[in-house]
Backbone:
């Protein structure tokens, strides 16, 4: 909890194994070399990964005390490799499937309006730009879940993408 690793932090995207000196490797510096120049090499895609990393940090940095917000699972389906959860007014939706994209994929979410505020499919992040980030999504009512103020949020989920949507609370009448 609270840990964060990006491509320069070992686990995500770095082309070589990194291991800092520690007792388990005899305090060796052999693999303690980060390649900081990768992000500056335009022929590679690390600049796009860095842009996404900065956008993610900016997104959660704009939410007061983000770490303290509870995580509410909205949907997970192993067969589809889709996960959705809510944290504050933000809904995180992941399609981990390596080849399967979904048109109109639905899951239950609080009734209301949602706007995409971050998409890994954005061309700035090396994506294909298949998600129209200008579209506002509205839940579709379902009488079965109306007492819980939930409806079906249906989205286009390209393979190997994630998106973050901001929930707009319905106006009180």
Residues:
């Amino acid at each position: 909890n609270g840990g964060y690793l990006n491509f320069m932090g070992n686990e995500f995207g770095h082309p070589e194994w990194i291991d800092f000196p520690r007792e388990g490797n005899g305090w060796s510096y052999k693999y303690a070399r980060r390649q900081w120049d990768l992000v500056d090499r335009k022929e590679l895609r690390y600049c796009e990964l860095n842009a996404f990393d900065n956008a993610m940090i900016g997104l959660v940095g704009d939410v007061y005390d983000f770490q303290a917000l509870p995580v509410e699972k909205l949907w997970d389906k192993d067969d589809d490799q889709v996960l959705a959860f809510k944290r504050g007014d933000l809904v995180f939706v992941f399609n981990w499937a390596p080849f399967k994209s979904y048109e109109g994929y639905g899951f239950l979410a609080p009734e209301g309006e949602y706007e995409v505020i971050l998409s890994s499919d954005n061309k700035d992040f090396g994506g294909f730009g298949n998600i129209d980030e200008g579209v506002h999504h509205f839940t579709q009512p379902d009488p079965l879940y109306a007492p819980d103020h939930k409806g079906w949020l249906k989205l286009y989920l390209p393979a190997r993408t994630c998106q973050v949507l901001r929930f707009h609370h319905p106006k009180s009448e």
In short: The chain has a mean pLDDT of 89.
